[in-house]
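To: structure subgroup
Subject: Chain for Friday's discussion

All,

I'm putting the inputs and outputs inline so they're searchable in the archive.
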Amino acid sequence: MNKIEILVICRHEGILQTIIRLINNNSEWNATGAVTDDEAIAEFNERSFKLVLLGSGIEKESEDKLCAAFKAEKPEIIIVEHYGGGSGLLAAEIYQALN
């Protein structure tokens, strides 16, 4: 079974690692993290992600740039904003976006 690939972008390394760990606790998901816009775009271009999760600390200008780049490359990409709320909310947001 192929896992659903999720790109997580968050400016805070500690929070990013927590989000990745929580996502990877689900046997159906595989998270990859990026802190900078350049890292995120490079990862996106190298792998086949189904969902991009935008975490805390991303400025509006960067968010707009990233979303435009991702949609230009893969119009069907799912983009979810997640700014906290615990593991239950995170999983619910991902499940809702995927369905």
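Points worth raising on Friday:
The beta strands are 4-9, 29-34, 51-54, 78-81.
The two ends are 18 Å apart (CA to CA).

D.
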